[in-house]
Amino acid sequence: MTEAKSARGTQDAPGVRYGDGTRVVRAGLPDEEPYAPPMPGPVLAAHYHLPGDPSTAPYTYGRDNNPTWTGLERAIGELEAPGDETVRTTVFASGMAAISAVLLSRAKPGDVVVLPSDGYNLLVPVRERLEGWGVEVRTAPTGGDAQLEALDGASLLWIESPSNPGLDVCDIRRLADAAHERGALVAVDNTLATPLGQRPLELGADYAVASGTKALTGHGDVLLGYVACRSEELAAPVRLWRKTVGAIPGPVEAWLAHRSLATLELRTARQAAGALAVAEALRGRSEVSGVRHPGLPDDPAHETAARQMRRFGCVVSFTLPDKGFAERFLDALRLVDDATSFGGVRSTAERRGRWGGDDVPEGFVRMSVGVEDAADLVADVHAALDAAARG
Ligand SMILES: *Cc1c(COP(=O)(O)O)cnc(C)c1O
Protein backbone atom coordinates (compact mmCIF):
# COMPACT_ATOMS: atom_id res chain seq x y z
CA MET A 1 0.00 0.00 0.00
CA THR A 2 1.40 3.37 -0.94
CA GLU A 3 1.35 6.34 1.36
CA ALA A 4 -1.04 8.29 -0.84
CA LYS A 5 -3.64 5.52 -0.66
CA SER A 6 -3.55 5.18 3.06
CA ALA A 7 -6.16 6.41 5.31
CA ARG A 8 -5.22 9.63 6.14
CA GLY A 9 -5.94 9.97 2.47
CA THR A 10 -6.54 13.66 2.75
CA GLN A 11 -3.02 14.27 3.92
CA ASP A 12 -1.18 16.04 1.15
CA ALA A 13 1.19 13.94 -0.93
CA PRO A 14 4.73 15.31 -0.72
CA GLY A 15 4.89 18.73 -2.33
CA VAL A 16 1.16 18.82 -3.12
CA ARG A 17 -1.72 20.71 -1.53
CA TYR A 18 -4.92 18.88 -2.36
CA GLY A 19 -8.02 20.83 -3.28
CA ASP A 20 -11.29 20.58 -1.38
CA GLY A 21 -12.88 18.29 -3.95
CA THR A 22 -10.07 15.78 -3.49
CA ARG A 23 -10.08 16.13 0.26
CA VAL A 24 -13.79 15.50 0.81
CA VAL A 25 -13.98 12.17 -1.04
CA ARG A 26 -11.25 10.65 1.15
CA ALA A 27 -11.78 12.45 4.43
CA GLY A 28 -11.75 10.12 7.42
CA LEU A 29 -11.58 6.86 5.48
CA PRO A 30 -9.73 3.96 7.07
CA ASP A 31 -6.46 2.52 5.77
CA GLU A 32 -6.84 0.54 2.59
CA GLU A 33 -7.18 -3.11 3.45
CA PRO A 34 -7.60 -5.92 0.89
CA TYR A 35 -11.23 -7.00 0.50
CA ALA A 36 -12.53 -4.55 3.11
CA PRO A 37 -15.08 -1.95 2.00
CA PRO A 38 -13.58 1.50 1.30
CA MET A 39 -16.10 2.95 3.72
CA PRO A 40 -17.27 0.53 6.41
CA GLY A 41 -20.98 0.49 7.25
CA PRO A 42 -22.47 1.81 10.49
CA VAL A 43 -21.41 -0.07 13.63
CA LEU A 44 -24.47 -0.84 15.74
CA ALA A 45 -23.20 -1.68 19.21
CA ALA A 46 -24.28 -0.78 22.73
CA HIS A 47 -21.11 -2.36 24.12
CA TYR A 48 -17.88 -3.94 22.88
CA HIS A 49 -15.88 -6.97 23.93
CA LEU A 50 -13.82 -5.51 26.74
CA PRO A 51 -11.15 -7.65 28.34
CA GLY A 52 -9.29 -6.35 31.40
CA ASP A 53 -8.40 -2.71 32.09
CA PRO A 54 -10.80 -0.40 30.21
CA SER A 55 -8.70 2.76 30.65
CA THR A 56 -6.87 2.41 27.32
CA ALA A 57 -9.64 0.67 25.38
CA PRO A 58 -10.74 2.67 22.30
CA TYR A 59 -14.28 1.30 22.48
CA THR A 60 -16.02 0.35 25.68
CA TYR A 61 -19.67 1.37 25.83
CA GLY A 62 -21.89 2.85 23.12
CA ARG A 63 -22.47 6.17 24.88
CA ASP A 64 -18.71 6.78 25.13
CA ASN A 65 -17.52 6.01 21.65
CA ASN A 66 -18.28 4.28 18.38
CA PRO A 67 -16.07 3.48 15.35
CA THR A 68 -18.56 5.12 12.99
CA TRP A 69 -18.28 8.36 14.97
CA THR A 70 -14.50 8.04 14.85
CA GLY A 71 -14.51 7.97 11.05
CA LEU A 72 -16.80 11.00 10.85
CA GLU A 73 -14.84 12.87 13.52
CA ARG A 74 -11.60 12.31 11.59
CA ALA A 75 -13.25 13.48 8.40
CA ILE A 76 -14.64 16.69 9.89
CA GLY A 77 -11.31 17.38 11.61
CA GLU A 78 -9.49 17.03 8.29
CA LEU A 79 -11.84 19.60 6.74
CA GLU A 80 -11.93 22.09 9.64
CA ALA A 81 -8.13 21.99 10.10
CA PRO A 82 -6.40 20.42 7.08
CA GLY A 83 -2.99 19.02 7.88
CA ASP A 84 -3.31 19.65 11.62
CA GLU A 85 -2.80 16.47 13.61
CA THR A 86 -3.77 18.16 16.87
CA VAL A 87 -7.40 18.69 15.84
CA ARG A 88 -9.97 16.86 17.98
CA THR A 89 -13.57 16.58 16.83
CA THR A 90 -16.57 15.39 18.82
CA VAL A 91 -19.84 14.61 17.03
CA PHE A 92 -23.23 15.13 18.65
CA ALA A 93 -26.87 14.26 18.14
CA SER A 94 -27.64 17.76 16.81
CA GLY A 95 -26.19 21.22 16.43
CA MET A 96 -27.86 22.32 19.66
CA ALA A 97 -26.30 19.37 21.49
CA ALA A 98 -22.87 20.57 20.27
CA ILE A 99 -23.54 24.23 21.13
CA SER A 100 -24.85 23.36 24.60
CA ALA A 101 -21.86 21.09 25.20
CA VAL A 102 -19.41 23.98 24.80
CA LEU A 103 -21.43 26.65 26.59
CA LEU A 104 -22.79 24.54 29.43
CA SER A 105 -19.59 22.59 30.09
CA ARG A 106 -17.36 25.69 30.18
CA ALA A 107 -19.34 28.41 31.92
CA LYS A 108 -19.18 28.55 35.71
CA PRO A 109 -21.01 30.82 38.18
CA GLY A 110 -19.47 34.29 38.05
CA ASP A 111 -18.13 33.87 34.51
CA VAL A 112 -18.97 36.35 31.77
CA VAL A 113 -20.11 34.90 28.43
CA VAL A 114 -20.61 37.05 25.32
CA LEU A 115 -23.23 35.85 22.83
CA PRO A 116 -24.46 37.36 19.56
CA SER A 117 -27.82 39.14 19.93
CA ASP A 118 -28.79 38.03 16.40
CA GLY A 119 -27.67 34.41 16.55
CA TYR A 120 -29.59 31.15 16.24
CA ASN A 121 -32.87 31.52 18.11
CA LEU A 122 -32.24 28.71 20.61
CA LEU A 123 -29.34 30.70 22.06
CA VAL A 124 -32.08 32.49 24.03
CA PRO A 125 -33.05 29.52 26.25
CA VAL A 126 -29.35 28.61 26.58
CA ARG A 127 -28.74 32.16 27.77
CA GLU A 128 -31.54 31.87 30.32
CA ARG A 129 -30.12 28.59 31.58
CA LEU A 130 -26.66 30.14 31.97
CA GLU A 131 -28.09 33.12 33.83
CA GLY A 132 -29.94 30.75 36.14
CA TRP A 133 -26.58 29.27 37.01
CA GLY A 134 -25.11 32.64 37.95
CA VAL A 135 -23.28 33.32 34.69
CA GLU A 136 -23.34 36.90 33.41
CA VAL A 137 -24.39 36.88 29.75
CA ARG A 138 -23.83 39.91 27.51
CA THR A 139 -25.10 40.16 23.97
CA ALA A 140 -24.18 42.36 21.02
CA PRO A 141 -24.94 42.22 17.29
CA THR A 142 -22.70 40.35 14.84
CA GLY A 143 -22.38 43.22 12.35
CA GLY A 144 -19.78 45.94 12.91
CA ASP A 145 -17.80 43.64 15.27
CA ALA A 146 -20.03 45.03 18.05
CA GLN A 147 -19.17 42.12 20.35
CA LEU A 148 -15.75 43.77 20.84
CA GLU A 149 -17.33 46.27 23.23
CA ALA A 150 -18.62 43.51 25.52
CA LEU A 151 -15.39 41.56 26.03
CA ASP A 152 -13.92 43.03 29.22
CA GLY A 153 -13.84 40.35 31.88
CA ALA A 154 -15.29 37.70 29.57
CA SER A 155 -14.19 34.07 29.71
CA LEU A 156 -15.99 32.91 26.55
CA LEU A 157 -16.95 34.65 23.32
CA TRP A 158 -19.54 33.00 21.08
CA ILE A 159 -19.52 34.13 17.43
CA GLU A 160 -22.01 33.24 14.70
CA SER A 161 -20.74 34.41 11.31
CA PRO A 162 -22.55 34.61 8.97
CA SER A 163 -25.42 34.98 11.42
CA ASN A 164 -28.67 33.13 10.91
CA PRO A 165 -31.01 34.44 9.57
CA GLY A 166 -29.76 38.03 9.14
CA LEU A 167 -26.51 37.09 7.31
CA ASP A 168 -24.34 39.64 9.06
CA VAL A 169 -20.63 38.89 9.26
CA CYS A 170 -17.95 39.87 11.77
CA ASP A 171 -14.17 39.87 11.55
CA ILE A 172 -13.42 36.56 13.30
CA ARG A 173 -9.65 37.11 13.50
CA ARG A 174 -10.07 40.57 15.03
CA LEU A 175 -12.60 39.40 17.62
CA ALA A 176 -10.59 36.28 18.46
CA ASP A 177 -7.40 38.30 19.02
CA ALA A 178 -9.24 40.78 21.25
CA ALA A 179 -10.86 37.96 23.24
CA HIS A 180 -7.56 36.12 23.68
CA GLU A 181 -5.88 39.29 24.92
CA ARG A 182 -8.45 39.28 27.71
CA GLY A 183 -8.01 35.57 28.40
CA ALA A 184 -11.32 34.49 26.89
CA LEU A 185 -11.90 31.41 24.76
CA VAL A 186 -13.58 31.80 21.37
CA ALA A 187 -16.14 29.58 19.71
CA VAL A 188 -17.53 30.10 16.21
CA ASP A 189 -20.80 28.63 14.96
CA ASN A 190 -19.74 27.55 11.46
CA THR A 191 -23.07 26.03 10.41
CA LEU A 192 -23.86 28.35 7.56
CA ALA A 193 -20.42 28.38 5.93
CA THR A 194 -19.42 24.71 6.44
CA PRO A 195 -15.69 23.96 6.75
CA LEU A 196 -15.33 24.43 3.00
CA GLY A 197 -16.65 27.97 3.25
CA GLN A 198 -14.75 29.07 6.35
CA ARG A 199 -12.20 27.58 8.75
CA PRO A 200 -12.64 29.26 12.16
CA LEU A 201 -9.72 27.43 13.77
CA GLU A 202 -7.37 28.96 11.19
CA LEU A 203 -8.93 32.36 11.89
CA GLY A 204 -7.97 32.08 15.56
CA ALA A 205 -11.02 30.43 17.17
CA ASP A 206 -10.58 27.79 19.85
CA TYR A 207 -13.71 25.89 18.84
CA ALA A 208 -15.43 25.46 15.49
CA VAL A 209 -18.96 24.33 16.31
CA ALA A 210 -21.71 23.50 13.84
CA SER A 211 -25.01 21.93 13.08
CA GLY A 212 -24.32 19.18 10.57
CA THR A 213 -28.05 19.05 9.92
CA LYS A 214 -27.78 21.81 7.34
CA ALA A 215 -25.34 22.11 4.42
CA LEU A 216 -22.73 19.75 5.86
CA THR A 217 -24.94 16.71 5.29
CA GLY A 218 -27.24 18.51 2.86
CA HIS A 219 -30.03 16.01 2.23
CA GLY A 220 -32.50 17.02 4.93
CA ASP A 221 -32.51 13.52 6.43
CA VAL A 222 -30.07 13.73 9.36
CA LEU A 223 -29.70 15.75 12.55
CA LEU A 224 -26.10 16.09 13.67
CA GLY A 225 -23.66 18.47 15.34
CA TYR A 226 -19.97 18.71 16.09
CA VAL A 227 -17.30 20.56 18.01
CA ALA A 228 -13.76 20.74 16.58
CA CYS A 229 -10.84 22.14 18.58
CA ARG A 230 -7.07 21.91 18.58
CA SER A 231 -6.19 20.19 21.83
CA GLU A 232 -7.14 17.32 24.08
CA GLU A 233 -7.43 19.82 26.91
CA LEU A 234 -10.23 21.70 25.11
CA ALA A 235 -11.85 18.54 23.77
CA ALA A 236 -12.00 16.57 27.04
CA PRO A 237 -14.77 18.56 28.80
CA VAL A 238 -16.84 18.56 25.61
CA ARG A 239 -16.51 14.77 25.31
CA LEU A 240 -17.34 14.30 28.96
CA TRP A 241 -20.43 16.47 28.50
CA ARG A 242 -21.57 14.31 25.56
CA LYS A 243 -21.21 11.20 27.68
CA THR A 244 -22.84 12.76 30.74
CA VAL A 245 -25.96 14.05 29.01
CA GLY A 246 -25.96 11.29 26.40
CA ALA A 247 -26.27 13.67 23.44
CA ILE A 248 -24.90 11.07 21.06
CA PRO A 249 -25.60 10.65 17.34
CA GLY A 250 -26.98 7.33 16.16
CA PRO A 251 -24.43 5.26 14.20
CA VAL A 252 -26.65 5.32 11.11
CA GLU A 253 -26.89 9.13 11.23
CA ALA A 254 -23.12 9.40 11.68
CA TRP A 255 -22.58 7.08 8.73
CA LEU A 256 -25.02 8.98 6.51
CA ALA A 257 -23.25 12.21 7.43
CA HIS A 258 -19.85 10.78 6.56
CA ARG A 259 -21.18 9.47 3.26
CA SER A 260 -22.64 12.89 2.46
CA LEU A 261 -19.27 14.60 2.86
CA ALA A 262 -18.02 13.14 -0.43
CA THR A 263 -20.32 15.55 -2.29
CA LEU A 264 -19.81 18.54 0.01
CA GLU A 265 -17.58 20.36 -2.46
CA LEU A 266 -19.95 19.77 -5.38
CA ARG A 267 -23.01 20.76 -3.38
CA THR A 268 -21.63 23.87 -1.73
CA ALA A 269 -20.06 25.20 -4.93
CA ARG A 270 -23.31 24.82 -6.81
CA GLN A 271 -25.42 26.18 -3.97
CA ALA A 272 -23.20 29.25 -3.62
CA ALA A 273 -23.43 29.97 -7.36
CA GLY A 274 -27.21 29.47 -7.31
CA ALA A 275 -27.63 31.65 -4.21
CA LEU A 276 -25.75 34.50 -5.87
CA ALA A 277 -27.90 34.21 -9.01
CA VAL A 278 -31.10 34.24 -6.96
CA ALA A 279 -29.88 37.18 -4.83
CA GLU A 280 -29.08 39.18 -7.97
CA ALA A 281 -32.49 38.38 -9.46
CA LEU A 282 -34.26 39.42 -6.24
CA ARG A 283 -32.36 42.68 -6.19
CA GLY A 284 -33.78 43.63 -9.55
CA ARG A 285 -37.37 43.45 -8.25
CA SER A 286 -39.11 46.51 -6.87
CA GLU A 287 -41.30 44.49 -4.41
CA VAL A 288 -38.20 43.09 -2.71
CA SER A 289 -36.13 45.00 -0.19
CA GLY A 290 -33.18 44.23 2.08
CA VAL A 291 -31.68 41.44 -0.04
CA ARG A 292 -28.76 39.98 1.90
CA HIS A 293 -26.16 37.48 0.72
CA PRO A 294 -22.49 37.76 1.65
CA GLY A 295 -21.47 36.99 -1.94
CA LEU A 296 -23.17 40.10 -3.37
CA PRO A 297 -20.30 42.51 -4.08
CA ASP A 298 -22.07 45.46 -2.45
CA ASP A 299 -23.56 43.58 0.50
CA PRO A 300 -22.54 45.25 3.81
CA ALA A 301 -20.92 41.93 4.83
CA HIS A 302 -19.07 41.30 1.59
CA GLU A 303 -15.73 42.89 2.31
CA THR A 304 -15.17 41.05 5.59
CA ALA A 305 -16.72 37.86 4.20
CA ALA A 306 -14.39 37.91 1.20
CA ARG A 307 -11.38 38.12 3.52
CA GLN A 308 -12.30 35.17 5.71
CA MET A 309 -14.67 32.99 3.69
CA ARG A 310 -13.82 30.79 0.74
CA ARG A 311 -17.42 30.49 -0.46
CA PHE A 312 -20.48 32.36 0.68
CA GLY A 313 -23.11 29.75 1.39
CA CYS A 314 -26.56 28.88 0.15
CA VAL A 315 -28.74 31.30 2.12
CA VAL A 316 -30.34 34.47 0.79
CA SER A 317 -32.54 36.63 3.00
CA PHE A 318 -34.90 39.38 1.88
CA THR A 319 -38.05 41.23 2.83
CA LEU A 320 -41.37 41.28 0.99
CA PRO A 321 -43.96 44.06 1.52
CA ASP A 322 -45.99 42.23 4.21
CA LYS A 323 -46.97 38.89 5.69
CA GLY A 324 -49.68 38.20 3.10
CA PHE A 325 -47.36 38.94 0.20
CA ALA A 326 -44.70 36.62 1.65
CA GLU A 327 -47.23 33.84 2.18
CA ARG A 328 -48.54 34.15 -1.38
CA PHE A 329 -44.97 34.14 -2.69
CA LEU A 330 -44.05 30.97 -0.77
CA ASP A 331 -47.26 29.32 -1.90
CA ALA A 332 -46.62 30.14 -5.56
CA LEU A 333 -43.06 28.76 -5.69
CA ARG A 334 -42.98 25.43 -7.50
CA LEU A 335 -39.35 24.41 -6.99
CA VAL A 336 -38.85 25.76 -3.48
CA ASP A 337 -40.47 23.97 -0.54
CA ASP A 338 -41.97 25.98 2.31
CA ALA A 339 -39.85 24.50 5.07
CA THR A 340 -37.45 25.49 7.80
CA SER A 341 -33.77 24.54 7.99
CA PHE A 342 -31.35 25.20 5.12
CA GLY A 343 -28.44 23.75 3.21
CA GLY A 344 -30.28 20.91 1.50
CA VAL A 345 -30.05 19.75 -2.11
CA ARG A 346 -33.68 20.87 -2.59
CA SER A 347 -34.34 24.58 -2.24
CA THR A 348 -36.45 25.69 0.70
CA ALA A 349 -37.75 29.02 1.97
CA GLU A 350 -39.78 30.25 4.87
CA ARG A 351 -41.22 33.34 6.47
CA ARG A 352 -39.10 33.53 9.61
CA GLY A 353 -41.65 35.67 11.43
CA ARG A 354 -43.95 32.65 11.76
CA TRP A 355 -41.75 31.34 14.60
CA GLY A 356 -41.78 34.54 16.62
CA GLY A 357 -38.15 34.10 17.74
CA ASP A 358 -36.17 36.30 15.35
CA ASP A 359 -36.23 40.08 15.34
CA VAL A 360 -37.32 40.37 11.69
CA PRO A 361 -40.14 42.10 9.71
CA GLU A 362 -43.33 40.11 8.96
CA GLY A 363 -42.41 39.87 5.28
CA PHE A 364 -38.87 38.59 5.95
CA VAL A 365 -38.03 35.43 4.00
CA ARG A 366 -35.01 33.18 4.41
CA MET A 367 -34.35 31.13 1.31
CA SER A 368 -31.93 28.24 1.02
CA VAL A 369 -30.76 27.54 -2.50
CA GLY A 370 -30.34 23.88 -3.41
CA VAL A 371 -28.53 22.26 -6.31
CA GLU A 372 -31.24 22.76 -8.93
CA ASP A 373 -30.34 24.61 -12.14
CA ALA A 374 -29.97 28.26 -11.17
CA ALA A 375 -31.90 29.45 -14.25
CA ASP A 376 -34.92 27.35 -13.22
CA LEU A 377 -34.84 28.75 -9.70
CA VAL A 378 -34.54 32.33 -10.90
CA ALA A 379 -37.51 31.83 -13.24
CA ASP A 380 -39.52 30.25 -10.41
CA VAL A 381 -38.76 33.17 -8.09
CA HIS A 382 -39.80 35.73 -10.74
CA ALA A 383 -43.04 33.83 -11.46
CA ALA A 384 -43.88 33.54 -7.74
CA LEU A 385 -43.25 37.26 -7.17
CA ASP A 386 -45.57 38.05 -10.09
CA ALA A 387 -48.23 35.74 -8.68
CA ALA A 388 -47.91 37.22 -5.18
CA ALA A 389 -48.18 40.77 -6.59
CA ARG A 390 -51.42 39.85 -8.39
CA GLY A 391 -52.85 38.91 -4.98
C1 LIG B 1 -29.80 24.93 12.76
C2 LIG B 1 -28.78 25.70 13.47
C3 LIG B 1 -28.36 25.31 14.74
C4 LIG B 1 -28.99 24.15 15.48
O1 LIG B 1 -28.71 22.92 14.87
P1 LIG B 1 -29.64 21.62 15.05
O2 LIG B 1 -28.89 20.57 14.32
O3 LIG B 1 -30.97 21.96 14.46
O4 LIG B 1 -29.74 21.37 16.52
C5 LIG B 1 -27.38 26.05 15.35
N1 LIG B 1 -26.81 27.11 14.76
C6 LIG B 1 -27.19 27.52 13.54
C7 LIG B 1 -26.53 28.70 12.93
C8 LIG B 1 -28.18 26.83 12.86
O5 LIG B 1 -28.58 27.25 11.66
Q: What would CATH call the architecture of the largest domain? A: 3-Layer(aba) Sandwich
Name the hetero compounds present.
pyridoxal-5'-phosphate
Major beta sheet, strand line-up: 1-7-6-5-4-2-3
What is the top-level CATH class of the largest domain? Alpha Beta
DSSP E strands, number: 12
Q: What shape does the CA trace take?
A: globular
- SS-based class: alpha/beta
Percentage of β-strand residues = 5-15%
Q: How many discrete structural domains?
A: 2
Give the CATH topology of the largest domain: Aspartate Aminotransferase, domain 2
Protein name: Cystathionine gamma-lyase
EC number: 4.4.1.1
InterPro entries: Cys/Met-Metab_PyrdxlP-dep_enz, PyrdxlP-dep_Trfase, PyrdxlP-dep_Trfase_major, PyrdxlP-dep_Trfase_small
Cofactor: pyridoxal 5'-phosphate
